[in-house]
Write a structure and sequence with these properties.
The protein is of the alpha/beta class. Helices cover about 40% and strands about 15% of the residues. The protein is built from 13 helices and eleven strands. The chain has a seven-stranded mixed β-sheet, with helices on both faces.
Length: about 375
Amino acid sequence: MNWINNVVRPKISSFLTTRREPPDNFWHKCGGCGQMSDKKALEDNAFVFPCCGHHERMASDARLRLLFDEGAFTPIAVKDVPVDPLKFRDGQRYTDRLKAAKTKTSLADAVVLGEGLLEGAPVVVAVQDFRFLGGSLGMAAGEAIITGMLHAVDKNAPFILFAASGGARMQEGILSLMQMPRTTIAVQRLREARLPYIVVLTDPTTGGVTASYAMLGDVHIAEPGALICFAGPRVIEQTIRVELPDGFQRAEYLLAHGMVDMVIHRHKMRETVSRVCRLLMAGTGAALAETDKKRKKSPGYIKSMNGHTVSGKVVERLARGSDVLEPEPVDDAERFDAAAVESREKAKRDAEAKAKSRTLPRNGAPS
């Protein structure tokens, strides 16, 4: 009886009552409201927390699968660059940090390139992965950005960049900073080829990346709540000793102050990017061809389409005549009307002049 009571019963009891513990990375805490969500539900919802809509950071492979048709894309190879040319060492050797990051993420460096179809149209995409040393810009990342842009020129396809970075990689010193002008020159190659350059700013996009290619796009789209800045808000507060406004340097704040063009929910990002690409690609070729014929006859030409001279009316008519919808529909009351603005300014000037004439009669005495 002792054997049954001491051994058999406890084993049966443990078999019936023991629960399997979930793995360590099963639960994820929302950065917006603090609620917990399981990993599978978060992946199915494109890493957007259903509780409050907070956008979690995404890995590069998940981002590419979410964008391309049926999640299918072809990786683009990037040539090798020197590793640790400065023989940098702080708490540990730079080469050891690189090995650890490559083992953790299974990536060659912070930028991943892919090409494929976006709603049937070919595109080239670059994604910065914040998991790899904070998405920092080094020689390998800069080479990947340049390779992607030149590949887009060769394929005559739009180039889409998903930016997420803490800035330049300090372990590479001046060689890292030199990637800023190098990528800027590659952006100019896109402009000369009259190809769209779409930048999607994700959380966080800071430092030298913001100061170079991340803010040189034709259209800048931001994800909700993304931190977008050069120097962070904590650094600014400590420097100027002034409390910053709520939401400072977040995507919505930048939209209100004209730094980005749109703030788009991740669930609508794919269709929005596709619509913008079709709009720019439809307008570029046809509008330039028609504009060249009438360049000397018609006034009112504007600088548009990657810096090339085209007619604004021609672009709008051709774009609306195609199957392209507006990238971000707005009400007519919110549209900019130059004639209405000029009329309001004229009425304001007339009213001020009339009020001034009443207060100062000819004899100098107030009326």
